[in-house]
Specification:
Layout (H helix, E strand, L loop, with lengths): L1 H10 L3 H41 L2 E5 L2 H5 L11 H8 L5 E15 L4 E9 L1 H7 L4 E5 L9 E5 H7 L6 E7 L5 E13 L3 H4 L2 E5 H8 L6 E6 L5 H14 L4 E5 H4 L1 H39 L1 H9 L4 H36 L3 E3 L9 E3 L5 H18 L1 H8 L3 H6 L2
Parallel strand pairs: 3-8, 5-7
Antiparallel strand pairs: 1-9, 1-10, 2-3, 2-6, 2-9, 4-7, 5-8, 6-7, 11-12
């Protein structure tokens, strides 16, 4: 308790130096909290835009599709969508069940022809599934008219097409034969991904089935009320598949979202580098404060040793000082970091230009993430305590007589 009290008193002995150390800690923690919150918001935004524009939360395919379906899609189609749909809607976590039938081919205005990636969709359900997809021009697909088409904004520019033009889709049907259809351009959409917006087309599901000469679908797409329920719902769906002996397989959004996973790895790598840099800055800042404190207190240390204080006692005192600097600086850092995050959010966030592969920028908010706060605080306390070891070791090596005579 004696060393505990001495250490706490010594923290505030030189208020100017202690204040500088606290400012270093606060600056480091603000950087960690704000950047960690920015990364978390970016992950959330990219995740939700991917789910609500392209993938949904869960997709169901005919068994074997993942291995062989892409090379031979006609052999891996689902025939009994309505039966599967009824079973899935019994799960309360599921918000929407829809179907898609995709195809690759050529799209032409008559003067210009480009490759495209097409999706046959159920129009009234697609608007809810693709809620993050922005309608830039025209209108959404309607359930009444099967001879309509909606294309990506970049694809429309490349084609040089206008609203109301008839576009020709050329593809191969499920039997490998070439088929074509003329559809009226009624709208353009933007998902945010420039690559996706340059190739995608959407047409009513029955129009896609006519093109491919089938009454089946490629996959069942499921939208949940909460993304956090994905793993729980997957287990329930797998149970339904097993109980009914259905020849199906499940894929979740994160298994299908290759771009999202690449971004997460990149941002986590950057964040880890920043954490190490900040830890080094805080370490040397506190160590410098402690070393300067030793030079000022050489006579005091010699006196403590002369009256019988052991080297372990001196070591404890300096370690407690480092610990208190970390505890108090960490508390101030959390308060400052949360305030900065709230100020940024209240001011409307930070504008981020379009990342590579994306077509539009966005306003980034800062999430206050409990895990980031805990990590920032604990790492500050640990680094502060460790940074006092060298100064403490230097203090206990002082000779008593020389320390007392020091001026």
């Amino acid at each position: 308790m004696k060393f505990f009290k001495l250490a706490l008193r010594n923290v505030f002995r030189n208020k100017r130096r202690t204040s500088i150390t606290f400012l270093s800690i606060i600056a480091g923690m603000i950087a960690l909290i704000v950047f960690g919150g920015f990364v978390e918001y970016s992950f959330w935004g990219l995740r939700e835009s991917t789910i609500h524009s392209q993938l949904g939360h869960i997709q169901i395919f005919k068994k074997g599709y993942s291995e062989k379906g892409r090379s031979n899609p006609g052999e891996y189609l689902i025939k009994d969508f309505r039966s599967i749909e009824k079973k899935l809607y019994r799960l309360p976590e599921i918000e929407l069940v829809t179907a898609r039938l995709s195809f690759s081919g050529l799209i032409s205005t008559g003067e210009k022809t480009l490759t495209c990636k097409g999706f046959g969709v159920i129009p009234e359900r697609e608007k809810k599934l693709a809620s993050f997809e922005t309608l830039k021009e025209g209108s959404h697909l309607s359930a009444e008219n099967k001879d309509e088409i909606l294309v990506g904004v970049e694809l429309k520019k490349s084609l040089g097409a206008n609203m109301g033009d008839y576009l020709t889709i050329l593809t191969t049907n499920s039997f490998g034969m070439i088929n074509a259809g003329d559809l009226k351009l009624i709208g353009t959409g933007q998902s945010g991904s420039a690559e996706y917006d340059a190739v995608f087309v959407k047409i009513p599901l029955n129009a896609a089935q006519t093109l491919l000469d089938t009454q089946s679908i490629e996959k069942v797409v499921i939208l949940l009320s909460k993304t956090e329920d994905t793993e729980k719902v997957v287990k329930k769906i797998q149970q339904i598949i097993d109980d009914n002996n259905l020849d199906l397989e499940i894929r979740t959004w994160d298994q299908l979202a290759t771009y999202y996973n690449s971004v997460v790895r990149l941002y986590n790598g950057i964040f880890n580098v920043i954490k190490v840099i900040i830890a080094i800055i805080v370490f040397f800042s506190i160590a410098n404060t402690m070393i300067m404190s030793i030079f000022e207190r050489v006579k005091e240390i010699g006196t403590l040793r002369a009256i019988g204080t052991k080297k372990s006692g001196i070591m404890q005192m300096f370690l407690w000082e480092g610990f208190f600097v970390g505890v108090l600086g960490g508390i101030l850092g959390i308060i400052a970091g949360v305030l900065v995050a709230l100020i940024i959010n209240i001011s409307g966030g930070i504008y981020i230009p379009p990342p590579p592969g994306m077509g539009v920028g966005y306003q980034s908010l800062i999430f206050v993430v409990p895990e980031v706060l805990i990590y920032s605080y604990l790492s500050t306390v640990i680094v502060s305590t460790l940074s006092s070891i060298y100064p403490a070791a230097k203090a206990i090596r002082l000779y008593i007589v020389e320390a007392i005579a020091h001026t």
